[in-house]
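step=encode ok
step=design start
structure_in=
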């Protein structure tokens, strides 16, 4: 069962809205989803460590790779994301292009 929701409205400076749209385009998300996730993150507090402390699936080397990817993800040139009906990510891909 889906959670009940109510529409809300907020005024944003044009510059901030443009920045939001650029970020959403670059990471392949919808503005509404980005705003909801940002509010949830602010209300619940953000985790400084993206990998759960009790992770038993990966070794520390895998965690280091994940931390590195997470830290440079916003610099990617392109990305695509697919979501299921519950707004969970089911597919994600990204790429970087470096001029040597």
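sequence_out=
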């Amino acid at each position: 069962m889906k959670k009940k929701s109510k529409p809300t409205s907020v005024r944003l400076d044009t510059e901030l809205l443009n920045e939001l749209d650029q970020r959403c385009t670059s990471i392949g998300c919808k503005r509404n989803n980005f705003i909801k996730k940002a509010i949830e993150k602010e209300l619940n507090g953000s985790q400084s460590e993206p990998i759960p402390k009790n992770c038993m699936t990966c070794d520390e080397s895998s965690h280091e790779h994940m931390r590195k990817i997470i830290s440079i993800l916003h610099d990617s040139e392109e990305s695509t994301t697919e979501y299921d009906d519950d707004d969970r990510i089911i597919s994600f891909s990204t790429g970087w292009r470096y001029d040597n």
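step=design ok
step=annotate ok -> The first helix runs from residue 14 to 27.
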